[in-house]
User: What shape does this take?
Amino acid sequence: MRDRIHICEGAEALASHAATWLVDLMVHHFETSDAPFSLALSGGSTPKRLYQRLGELPAGRVDWSRVVLLWGDERNVPADHADSNFRMVQENLLDHIDIPASNVWAVPNPGGPADEAAAKYQDWLLERLPRADNSMPQIDCVLLGMGDDVHTASLFPGSRALAEQSRAVVENRVEKLDTWRVTLTAPAINAARHVAFLIAGAGKQPALDSLWHGALDPEKYPSQLIRPQAGQLWFLLDRAAIGSLETPAPATVEVIAPS
Ligand code: 6PG
Assistant: This one.
């Protein structure tokens, strides 16, 4: 399936477009399925404005009772810690939408033993989500960011999780940050129906260049592991992130007009 690339003028336009894109995805799902729409959220700073835009939608624009939210990765800190991805989503989205608590699937016991949290989270997802052909839990949409070092989720260069092929969620030691993370694995992400990188800022251009045009070296460029098995891969970018980079072939490229 051809990658779909959307290019927006700036970070604000990107957040606005990404919110529209995601709402359209959810509404289409609601029209075609009785199952809840499962959405794996990315951490970091880039998606904050997207989450705020989702929280600003008119009441009823999204029936959040038909959406389950999960996390693509989590830092090994308590849920009220400044570095917590759960807290970031809570402040920018959860506090602003009417979603049942039972639809918010946070990584359990963050800050506790990462291996136990990963195992519990994996069991939780396997019990509640359908299975994809690779027997991974099938998520409807996984939102991803990308670090300057071409990591995504908590799949960092040279880390053990990059090689994981059978587990959906693992603990991952990130030496350069001297910390543990809990993360979806590449097979779990690649089982999703839609995987969308949300990338903004000129600072990400070299990483995007490495992802698209660097040597095929997932140990060095982990985002290269992200190739949905049967799902659609999206790149929701601002102009600064793509700059004058050539898009990978084959890809469908759309320049999104300012709304
Ligand atoms: C995290 C994210 C991580 C993030 C990238 C980009 O927990 O930090 O899941 O993968 O998406 O590091 O982060 P920024 O959006 O802050 O550049």
Summary: DSSP finds seven helices and eleven strands in the chain. The two ends are 28 Å apart (CA to CA). The first strand starts at residue 3 and ends at 8.
